[in-house]
Amino acid sequence: MRPLTAEETKTFFEKLAKYISPENIKLLLDRPDASYCFRLHKDRVFYASEKIMLTANNFARKELVSFGTCFGKFTKTGKFRLYMTALDYLAPYAQFKVWVKPNGEQSFLYGNHVLKSHLGRITDSTSKYQGVIVMSMSDVPLGFGVSAKSTQECRRADPSSIVTFHQADVGEYLRTEETLL
Amino acid sequence: MLNISPRLEPPDLQLVHQRIKDTIAVLGNFKRLRDPERKRKDYLDLLRHDLANYYNYNDYLMQKFTDLFDIKELIEFLEANEVERPVTIRTNTLKSRRRDLAQALINRGVNLDPIGEWSKVGLIVFDSPVPIGATPEYLAGHYMLQGASSMLPVMALAAQPNEKVLDMCSAPGGKTTYIAALMKNTGMIVANDVNKERCKALTANIHRLGVVNTIVCSENGRQFPKIVGGFDRVLLDAPCSGTGVISKDASVKSNKVEKDILRCSHIQKELLLSAIDSVDARSSTGGYIVYCTCSIMVEEDEWVVDYALKRRSVKLVSTGLEFGREGFTKFKERRFHPTLKLTRRYYPHEHNMDGFFVAKFKKLSNLIPAKEGVYCRKAKAIIFTFTLY
C-alpha cells in the first residue's frame, strides 16, 4: 500500500471530475468527521479514513484484500477504470444524472446501454459525452456511464437510439464478483 | 408381534418406515408390546439402524443424534432436516428501512412478512416471482440474503458505534455487514477469512451494502493477536462440521465421521483462544467474545467453550437472546462448567432455523493463566535452585 504518485493522482482525479465537480472531490478529502485518504494497493485505489488505513498497514501485502471503499483500478496501460463500488460516493455528489424507467432497469443491470425508450428523466444541460450517474425512478443509484447525446438531442431522438453508454452497473456484483478484487 | 431378528436390509423403504413406526410404538409402551425375548437395547439398536437407513445417515452421526435427543424429538429433527428452511433477508439499515424495503419488494410481487418479534430488520420471504438475489434493490445493497440463525450471534455481540471489532471467519459477510449496520458505519471492523476465494464474495458484499469501515484480510485466524490485537469485541463463527445445516448440505449425513468432528473441535479451540487473546479486557465499552457454530455437536460447542473457560480468564455472560434452549452443563460422561447454561442452542425442528450454537464471553484479564503442568515445572526448578544454594 502506498499513496498515489503525482501522475496517478492526476489521472485519477481527472476521471473522477467527469462525474463529480472538483469542489466535491475536495469534500471527499477534507471531511469534518475524520481525515480520509486515497491509497494504492495492488493497482487498486482505496478510499478510507486514516485510522483504518493505518491498521490495514499491519497486514502483509499478500493477505490484505481490501480496506475502506475501492474506487477502481489502474490498468496496465496507466489508465484509470472506475468501479461501481465507488457509486456510494459518486451518486450523492453527481452533477449529471439519468433516470431510467422501471422497464429499463433490468436491461441496464444486465450491462446494456440506456435507450431513449427507457429514459425517464435527464438532468438539463447535460452535454454530449458527459459522465452521468444512472438512477432508477425511485432514486436508487444503479450505475454510471457516458451520455451519448446532449439533453437537447435526446428530445428528438428516436426511441431505439442510445442515450447513455454503459460503463458500470451494480449488476456487476453478480456478474463479475470474481474479478472485482 | 414385531419381528426384529433379521438384520438383512428390507428392500423397500416403506417397509423400513413401517418398522420404524412399529419400533417406536413398542418403545412407547414397552411393558405391554415388547417381545419378552428382546431387551430394550435391541429395539433401540434396531431403531437407530433403521433411521440411519431411512434418512441416509451414517451410523456414527445417527448415534450422536440419538445421544442428543429423545426418540420423539429425534424424528422431528430428522424430518426437519429433509425440508428447507424459509428464505430470510435482512434489511441493510445503512441504506434502507424495513418498511420501505418491504414496500419495494411487495411492489415486485414478493410475498413477505416480518421474521418475528425478536428482530427489527429481518423479513421472511414466502414466495417471489423474481429471483430474490437479483432484484435492483438487492444489487443496490438494500438487503442481504441471510439465514435467521446467523443474525443471532451479531445480536449477541451487540457492537457499539466507534468500537474496534474483529470478525474472524467472516465470508461471505452476512454477519460482518450486520455488525457494520449496528455500528452505523463508524469505528473499525477487521473482517478475516482464511479462504482467498471466499474473500471475494466478502468484499463484494461489503461494497454492495455500502460498508466503509471494514478491512478485509485473508490471514489464518490463529495468527491473530500477533498481527493486530486490542479489539473491543470479537465474533468467532468457527468453521464446523455443519451438522446444524444438513437441510442445506445433505452430504454431511454420510461423510462426517468421528475424526472430522474432532478435527473441527481442535481448530475451534485454537481459534477461540486466539479470539480471546485478541480482545482487550480493559476496553471501556467491550471486552466481549461471541463464539458460534452451525453445528449441534457437543464436541464443537460446549466442549470448546468449557476448554476456553479453563485456559483463559474469561467468564460466560448472558447472550441477551430471548429464545433458544440452554446449553448442556452435563452430557453423558462429560461435566461442564455450570455457567454453560448461559449459552444458547437452536434447532431446526424447534425454532425453524438452522441448527446453531451461541456463547458470549466477557474477558476478565489480559493475563494468560499458566498451564498447571508448566507452573509445577517452574516451581520445581525454583526449589531446585534454592537447594543448590
UniProtKB/TrEMBL annotation, chain A:
Keywords of this entry: Nucleus, Ribosome biogenesis, RNA-binding
Annotated localization: Nucleus, Nucleolus
InterPro entries registered for this protein in UniProt: NIP7_N, Nip7_N_euk, PUA, PUA-like_sf, PUA_sf, Ribosomal_synth_fac_NIP7, UPF0113_PUA
Lineage top rank: taxon: Eukaryota
GO BP annotations listed: ribosomal large subunit biogenesis; ribosome assembly
A GO molecular-function descriptor: RNA binding
Keyword Membrane: no
This protein's GO CC annotations: nucleolus; preribosome, large subunit precursor
Main location: nucleus
Nucleus keyword on record: yes
Residues in PUA domain copies: 96-171
Transmembrane segments: none
PROSITE patterns found in the cross-reference section: PUA
Family per similarity comment: Belongs to the NIP7 family.
Function comment: Required for proper 34S pre-rRNA processing and 60S ribosome subunit assembly.
Binding partners and assembly: Interacts with pre-ribosome complex.
Protein name: 60S ribosome subunit biogenesis protein NIP7 homolog
TrEMBL record, chain B:
Residues reported to bind S-adenosyl-L-methionine: C169, S170, A171, P172, G173, G174, K175, D193, D237
GO molecular function: RNA binding; rRNA (cytosine-C5-)-methyltransferase activity
Localization: Nucleus, Nucleolus
Keyword field: Methyltransferase, Nucleus, Ribosome biogenesis, RNA-binding, S-adenosyl-L-methionine, Transferase
Predominant location: nucleus
Positions of the catalytic residues: C294
RNA-binding listed as a keyword: yes
Domain SAM-dependent MTase RsmB/NOP-type: 77-364
GO CC annotations, alphabetized: nucleolus
Family (UniProt): Belongs to the class I-like SAM-binding methyltransferase superfamily. RsmB/NOP family.
Protein name: SAM-dependent MTase RsmB/NOP-type domain-containing protein
Domain of life where this protein originates: Eukaryota
Listed Pfam families: Methyltr_RsmB-F (PF01189), RsmF-B_ferredox (PF22458)
Keyword match rRNA processing: no
Cross-referenced SUPFAM superfamilies: S-adenosyl-L-methionine-dependent methyltransferases
GO terms (BP aspect): maturation of LSU-rRNA; rRNA base methylation
